[in-house]
Amino acid sequence: MRRKAAWRMQAARALEDVTQARKELESIARDLEKSCPAAARSLREGLEETLILQGLRINDALLTSLASTNLIESAFSQAETYCGRVKRWRSGDMTQRWAASALLWSEKQFRKVRGFRHLPKLQAALNQSVLKPVKKAA
To answer: Which of 30, 48, 66, 97 is most buried, taking the most CB atoms under 10 A from its CB?
Structure first.
């Protein structure tokens, strides 16, 4: 079922009509409710964010990058490695300094975001208040 659900979600994300994409994602969630309630809850939890990004009509590569938590998870993973060298935390100030230092260190490891050339288009869409709440399908 995992492959079928992934295929259907990919097809729903490819739809240009946000309302139709919402209906398809809700249908997937209903189907998953029987076999995997946790997956259905997770899909419903991220539904609005998925549709907001989809409604911006931005480049697919940029959409993929922004729709994932990999960017922030990678930064925190690298920072964790860096901070793991500390043997004894003396104060809250020390913790904050090391955390900031670790994130600056991890920044050097970053690569370009896929679809970065489309960031000005995203900024223009945000400036034009394109992020109006998506109407829920009846």
So the answer is: 66
Q: What is the DSSP string of 49-94?
A: HHHHHHHTT--HHHHHHHHSSHHHHHHHHHHHHHHTT-S----HHH
The answer, as to whether pTM is greater than 0.70, is no
What's the CA angle centered on 41, arms 39 and 42, to 5 degrees? 65
Distance CA 98, CA 113 (A): 25
Q: How far apart are the first and last CA of the chain?
A: 27
Q: What is the pLDDT of residues 31-55, one digit of tens each?
A: 988 888 998 898 898 888 778 777 7
Cα–Cα distance measured from residue 60 to residue 118, given in angstroms and rounded to the nearest whole number = 10
CB-based contact 122:62 (threshold 8 Å): yes
SS3 132: coil
